[in-house]
Amino acid sequence: MTQNYQRIVLASRPHGTPTLDNFRLEELPLPELQDGEVLLKTLHLSLDPYMRGRMSEGPSYAAPVALGEVMVGGAISEVIASRHAEFAVGDRVLGYTGWQSHTISTGSGLTVLPATLAQPSWALGVLGMPGFTAYMGLLDIGQPKSGETVVVAAGTGAVGSLVGQIAKLKGCRVVGIAGGTTKCRYAVEELGFDACVDHHSSTLPAQLALACPDGIDVYFENVGGPVLQAVVPLLNTSARIPLCGLIAQYNSTELPAGPDFSPLLLRTLLTRRVTLKGFIIFDDYGHRYPEFAAQMGAWLQEGKIRYREDHVQGFASAPQAFIGLLEGKNFGKLVIDL
Ligand code: NDP
C-alpha cells in the first residue's frame, strides 16, 4: 500500500512579516525505496531565524528556497526502512532534510547520532548549529577575558543563552538583553547572568548603562536596530563585536525612520578601535566543530550549562511557530515535534 507523507513548501515570498499564506502544506505519495536509500521519519524539526532569509529573493550567503520547494531546515529523524549499508532501522540521524514528515535519502549529509545522546533534539540546539555559533562567535571573535563585561542580545534564545553562560564560565560579568520580564528573570535566576535588560522598555539605553557601569568590552550582536543603538555609546576602547545576526531587521522592507545612525556607529568604531566581525558559522568554522562538540559535551555532563527548548507539537504548527520566532514568541530553542 502506498504511504503518504506531508511537506510544507514556500507558496509565495513574504513582503515584510511572513504570513500563513506564504506556506502550503501538501500531502504526496512516498516513492518506493531504492537500493542505496533510507526512509526517514522526522521526529524533531528545527526552526531558526536564517529561514526568513531563504524565503526572500536577492543576494545572500545562501540561495533562496524556490517557490513550490520544500522549506529548508535541520531535523532529527529516525530510519524506518533502509536499503543502505551504513544505516540501520532505528538509527537516529541529523540532516538538513527540510520541512517534511518523511524523507528518502541517499545518506548524503546525514550524521548518525550516538545512542548515548541524552536528548536527540540537543543536536539541533545546544550541541548543534546554535551552540556552535555561540561558542565560536564568542570565543574566537569576542575573545572574552576574565573581569570584562559581555553583553548579549536575544539573551535567552538558542544562541544567546549559551553565549552568556560561556562568558560566565570565562569569568566575565554578563548582561543579557531580552524581551520581557519573564525572560529577563530567567536569564538572571536560571542562567546566572549578572543582569538582564528588557528591550521593550522605553528606557532601555539608561537601564543598559546602569547594568554596565564599566562599559561594554564584548557585545554579541544577534538583533541590530534599537538594541544596537543602546549598546554603541557604552562600548569601551578595544571592544569586540561578533556580528552574528540582525533579527530586528529580517522583516524590514525599508530603512528605519529617524536620523541616520551610521555616522555615530562608524565614529565609535574608529575612535574606540572596536573590532566588528561578521561570521557564518559553518562556512567560517566548520572545521572546528569537533572541538566545540567535545567542550560543550563536557560542560553539559558537568552540569555547567543549562539549555531551554521550546517544543511545539504537530507538523502543521511549523509556519505559525516560525512567524512567532521572528516576534520573540519562542522561549528557548524552537523545535517542532512531529
Ligand atoms: P532565538 O532563539 O534567540 O530566537 C529569536 C529571538 O530574537 C526572539 O525570541 C526574540 O527574543 C529576539 N527578537 C526577535 N525580534 C527582535 C527584535 N525586533 N528586537 C530584539 N530582539 C528580537 O534565535 P537564535 O538564537 O537561533 O538566533 C539568534 C540570532 O543569531 C539570529 O539573528 C540568527 O539569525 C543568528 N544566527 C546566526 C548564525 C550565523 O552563522 N551567523 C547562526 C545561527 C543564528 P526576545 O523575546 O528576547 O526579544
What's the number of helices?
Answer: 10
Name the CATH architecture of the largest domain: 3-Layer(aba) Sandwich
CATH class of the largest domain: Alpha Beta
Quaternary arrangement of the chains shown?
A: single chain
How helical, in percent, are the residues? Answer: 25-40%
Element order, helices and strands? EEEHEEEEHEHEHEHEHEHEHHEHE
Entry keywords:
Rossmann fold, 338 residues, 25% strand, binds NADPH dihydro-nicotinamide-adenine-dinucleotide phosphate, 2 domains, six-stranded parallel sheet, Quinone Oxidoreductase, Chain A, domain 1, seven-stranded mixed sheet
Give the topology.
Blueprint: E1 4-10, E2 23-29, E3 38-46, H1 50-54, E4 75-82, E5 92-95, E6 102-105, E7 111-112, H2 129-142, E8 149-152, H3 160-169, E9 173-178, H4 181-189, E10 195-198, H5 204-211, E11 216-220, H6 225-231, E12 235-243, H7 262-271, E13 275-278, H8 281-285, H9 289-301, E14 309-313, H10 318-325, E15 333-337
Parallel strand pairs: 8-9, 8-11, 9-10, 11-12, 12-13, 14-15
Antiparallel strand pairs: 1-2, 3-4, 3-6, 3-15, 4-5, 5-7
The protein binds NADPH dihydro-nicotinamide-adenine-dinucleotide phosphate.
Residues 48-50, 129-130, 133, 154, 156-160, 178-179, 183, 199, 222-223, 225, 227, 244-245, 247-248, 279-281, 325-326, 328, 330, 333 line the site of NADPH dihydro-nicotinamide-adenine-dinucleotide phosphate.
